[in-house]
UniProtKB/TrEMBL annotation:
This is Sarcosine dehydrogenase, mitochondrial. InterPro entries: FAD-dep_OxRdtase, FAD/NAD-bd_sf, FAO_M, GcvT/YgfZ/DmdA, GcvT/YgfZ_C, GcvT_C, GCVT_N, TrmE/GcvT-like. Residues 808-894 form the Aminomethyltransferase C-terminal domain. Residues 475-787 form the GCVT N-terminal domain. It comes from the Eukaryota. Belongs to the GcvT family. Pfam families: DAO, FAO_M, GCV_T, GCV_T_C. Residues 416-472 form the FAD dependent oxidoreductase central domain. One of its GO terms (cellular component) is mitochondrion. Residues 55-413 form the FAD dependent oxidoreductase domain. It comes from Scylla olivacea (Orange mud crab).
Length: 918
């Protein structure tokens, strides 16, 4: 035990290194700045034995566990139990600074935080317990024009979602916060609705409400074992939770144990990709004049200043955080000694922003464990392999502000099978399972995300940590050709092509730790920096060349990171009919673009499904009896697709097999008007329109290798996807490049695919279409077999919506000014009123202007119809600037799909011909 630093009268200035172990805080006020904590509460939980059965068992009594229990009860589920190893809040929640910032760069997070905020505002009335909500507002500080642009972007997305905020100049900022140095600031973003909460009051109020409704809370009751039972396709489901106070039979367990999440996940044989690190703030002595000031986030200095009565708490994100390899199971209300070598990085920034801090003493330090994840987003949702086991951990220092919203969504996930909001960004299914227990990968990626937490969120960025986990069979060929790779789902996929090789170097941890010096030269990293702009990057012209090569000649795309699955077996047709929204009663050889829906009609995935028969036994042509279905799903959502299909199969107990050929097959897509000529040179099979029409597939030989060729296109051109066993992929790639030379074939990457597909109007799942959008809203009604008698998952909801009328609709907009970029998150404005926002935007090179997609509503309610869309004056509001836009009912590029049919004998229809409004 050591004396608290604050008692030594420390000023807020750097001192020498102190690395010490965990200590237990013995006096309130010595550590955390809260008046009352749960540590001092008399045990108010249920005594005795745990019940024999519960509908849901929540493990962990921190912010997330308490929030989940409360929201379960709000939804009527009260035969529930919360088990906490020590006392409520004993883990990370006790340490929290409790800040809530309303503005986030996406609508889901804004909605989650709104839920928390609304709950904080009503909890006292509901329970008689004050959750400590102080609504003193928040100020974000910009020290550069780029940062200010980011804030303007945030302000816009806030406006769309009803969050009040203001951009202030230096003088206005000084008027609001007289103690602030504003000499070096460009501007600030002021959000009056921000504030702070008290962890003990909050958790007590949440559990009070839940227990009064019937839920039960057991403190000093650790979970020691979870029993499971085997199901189909190698899956498991939870059956029992064991504690020293008895065994609870249950079908649902929520793992809300924060930094300890892997102890609990390990009990059912799975791993959560998170790593505990030390995270800290210091509490200052009294600062005259600070009362009632808003909280401050100085992103460029990586520092926050939280109002703490008549003082401040100062914290931030360091480049060299300290990892906690193993956490003590007995950790309860523990504090770590602050390491000033690490924390000292924040001092200069804090003093610069509020100079009076230089002469202010530190009353106490708070250093606790927090769980951080590879992409700085929580890990939630049902485990893909263990039915009834729900993840709810890894909250990256946002578990208080996200707690209410995530507790609410968690409760819906458990009770309804799916959350209401688009939670894919938090879903464990966004990860590749083998990476979850790759400790080195998790640590490196989590470090990078932590260190960059306050960096500007640019539309294009890539991680430098943990790269090279999954590579396609032609990776080296692409690297030699100058490929600038992107990372998705562990895969290296092509981004765009520079003029010389740009390998990704081993992670140097940004030079943060002595053991790994910063690379002297890192050309790949230097290229990434060129993307750190809200203007066109310097390689815009290179991406243009790739796009136009595809539009005018031919391009090859390595899309090997796609998920590739064969669904076969006696019940395969039955399963396909139910799971896929499109008609699967088609002849072998058909390739069908389809959605997979949830019960509410939301789009869980979109993919192509090819109807096939058993073949020779190679990876692209497996042997099986009867009809089968070949599923090709976008790589970043591959596991989401697989998990959705698997879940339905298990639920319905169908007799099928699901063969995963993702890792042993490559996907080379050859697209453009010369694709047929090139491929025809390499295959004896007839590629003509009659024998190989659009939306069909065949097993053929290309350059002597067996491949499954699908005549489909994600870029709107004549083209084929070649699904090739890995061992054949390099030879096929070289043969295509050689045969394509006279036709000007070019390598192209996903930056081009994103632009081309956006220009053509093809939907990106999780961008233009998500689980909270229906096919009718997304313009994908054609993927639903409503004219057949075949029932499918989500059909009833889609039919209901069709009958009621569509109240929001995805529309296409192009900018009238061809020199302006768009990045997404722009407000869509009709006659001066915000009617939606851009989910996705790209520069469309053939159209010669930026293009955006977003859902629009009628401000007065009612159906979004042609009349609404074809009247009014439309603008996109981008970073505070209003840009005149044109609305299109159909995407403006090749609306008749002539290119897909190989009919290039026509003049490209420009956006003008299909524009409804200009
Ligand atoms: C210094 C600091 C400042 C922060 N500031 C903010 C902020 O300003 N705003 C914000 O939103 N977030 C902030 N956070 C983050 C936030 O506090 C956390 O994200 C949140 O408290 C995590 O809550 P949790 O419920 O996931 O985990 P925890 O609070 O750690 O709860 C997990 C619980 O599980 C229990 N447990 C473990 N094993 C078992 C077992 N076998 N059986 C039963 N129970 C078990 C533990 O005892 C613990 O009580 C901060 C964090 C720190 C450290």
């Amino acid at each position: 035990m050591t004396a608290p630093l604050g008692r030594c009268g420390r000023m807020l200035a750097p001192v020498s290194s102190l690395r010490m172990g965990v200590r237990t805080c013995s006096h309130i006020g010595e550590g955390v700045p809260y008046q009352k904590t749960m540590k001092d509460k008399k045990d108010s939980s249920s005594g005795g034995s745990v019940p024999e059965y519960a509908d849901v068992v929540v493990v962990g009594g921190g912010s997330l566990g308490c929030n989940t229990l409360y929201h379960l009860a709000k939804l009527g589920a009260t035969n529930t139990v919360l088990l906490e190893a020590h006392k409520l809040t004993a883990g990370t929640t006790w340490h929290t600074a409790g800040l809530l910032w309303r503005l986030r760069p996406n609508d889901t997070e804004i909605a989650l935080i709104n839920t928390t905020r609304e709950m904080l505002c009503r909890l006292e009335e509901e329970t008689g317990i004050n959750p400590g909500w102080i609504n003193n507002g928040g100020l974000f500080i910009a020290s550069s024009e780029k940062r200010l642009k980011e804030y303007q972007r945030l302000q816009t997305v806030g406006r769309v979602n009803g969050v009040e905020s203001y951009i202030l100049g230096p003088t206005e900022t000084r008027d609001l916060y007289p103690l602030m140095n504003v000499k070096d600031i460009t501007g600030t973003l002021y959000c009056p609705g921000d504030g702070t909460m008290d962890p003990a009051g909050l958790c007590q109020a949440l559990t009070r409400w839940a227990t009064q409704a019937g839920a039960r809370v057991f403190e000093e009751c650790p979970v020691t074992e979870i029993r499971t039972q085997e199901t189909l396709l190698g899956g498991w489901r939870v059956t029992e939770v064991h504690t020293p106070r008895g065994i609870i039979k249950t079908n649902a367990v929520v793992n809300a144990t924060g930094c300890w999440a892997n102890d609990i996940a390990g009990l059912v044989g799975v791993e959560v990709p998170l790593t505990p690190m030390k995270h800290a703030y210091v509490v200052t002595e009294k600062i005259p004049g600070i009362e009632n000031m808003p909280n401050v986030r100085d992103h460029d200095a990586s520092v926050y200043l939280r109002l703490q009565g008549d003082a401040l708490s100062v914290g931030g994100y360091e480049v060299n955080p300290i990892f906690l390899d193993k956490l003590d199971k007995d950790f309860s209300f523990g504090l770590y000694e602050l390491d000033w070598d690490v924390f000292g990085a924040h001092i200069e920034g804090a003093i610069n922003r509020v100079p009076v801090l230089e002469s202010t003493g530190i009353k106490s330090t708070v250093c606790g464990p927090e769980s951080f994840t590879p992409d700085h987003k929580p890990v939630m949702g049902e485990d893909p392999n263990v039915e009834g086991f729900f993840h709810c951990a890894g909250f990256n220092s946002s578990g208080m502000m996200l707690g209410g919203g995530c507790g609410d969504q968690m409760a819906r996930w458990v009770l309804h099978g799916r959350p209401d909001l688009d939670m894919f960004g938090y879903d464990i299914r966004r990860y590749h399972p083998p990476l979850n227990n790759n400790k080195a990968w998790v640590a490196a990626r989590s470090h990078e995300s932590y260190a960059k937490n306050y960096s500007i969120v640019f539309p294009h960025d890539e991680p430098l940590a943990g790269r090279g986990q999954r590579k396609s069979a032609v990776h080296q060929e692409l690297e030699n050709a100058g490929c600038v790779f992107q990372e998705r789902h562990g895969w290296e996929r092509p981004g765009w092509f520079a003029s010389s090789p740009m390998p990704v170097l081993p992670y140097d941890w940004y030079g943060a730790y002595e053991t790994t010096p910063l690379h002297a030269e890192d050309p790949y990293k230097a290229l990434l920096f060129n993307d750190y702009t809200f203007d066109f990057p310097s390689h815009h012209s290179q991406i243009q060349q790739e796009c136009l090569a595809c539009r005018e000649r031919v391009a090859i795309f390595d899309m090997s990171y796609f998920g590739k699955y064969f669904l076969t077996g006696p019940d395969a047709q039955k399963a396909a009919d139910w799971i896929f929204s499109a008609n699967m009663a088609r002849q072998p050889g058909a390739t069908i673009y389809t959605c997979m829906l949830n019960a509410k009609g939301g789009v869980e995935a979109d993919l192509t499904v090819s109807v096939c028969e058993g073949g020779s036994g190679s990876a692209c042509d497996p042997a099986f009896d009867g009809r089968g279905f070949y599923l090709a799903a976008g790589g970043a959502a591959a596991l989401q697709n697989l998990a959705h299909v698997t879940k339905e199969i298990r639920k319905n107990k169908w007799n099928v097999s699901l063969l995963d050929h993702t890792d042993d097959m490559s996907l080379l897509s050859v697209q453009g008007r010369h694709s047929r000529t090139i491929l025809q040179e390499l295959t004896p099979d007839d590629l003509g329109n009659d024998s190989f029409p659009f939306s069909s597939h065949k097993v053929i030989t290309v350059a002597g290798h067996t491949v499954r060729a699908l005549r489909v296109s994600f870029v709107g051109e004549l083209g084929w996807e070649l699904h090739v066993p890995n061992e054949s992929a390099p030879a096929v790639y070289h043969a295509v490049m050689e045969a394509g030379k006279p036709w000007g074939i070019t390598n192209a990457g996903y930056r081009a695919i994103d632009s081309l597909s956006c220009e053509k109007g093809y939907r990106h799942w999780h961008g233009d279409v998500r689980p909270d959008d229906t096919p009718l809203e997304a313009g994908l009604a054609f993927t639903c077999k409503l004219k057949t008698d075949t029932n499918f998952l989500g059909r009833a909801a889609v039919e209901r919506q069709k009958a009621e009328g569509i109240k929001r609709k995805l529309v296409t907009l192009t900018l009238q000014d061809s020199t302006q970029p768009l990045w997404g998150l722009e407000a869509i404005v009709r006659d001066g009123q915000i009617v939606g926002y851009a989910r996705r935007a790209e520069y469309a090179f053939a159209l010669g202007r930026a293009i955006a997609y977003g859902y629009v509503n009628r401000p007065e309610g009612g159906a979004v119809n042609k009349e609404f869309l074809s009247t009014g004056r439309w603008h996109l509001e981008s970073m505070g600037v209003s840009l005149p836009a044109t609305v299109h009912l159909r995407p403006p590029f090749d609306p008749k799909n002539l290119r897909l049919k190989g009919d290039y004998e026509y003049v490209i229809e420009t956006e003008r011909s299909s524009a409804l409004v200009s």
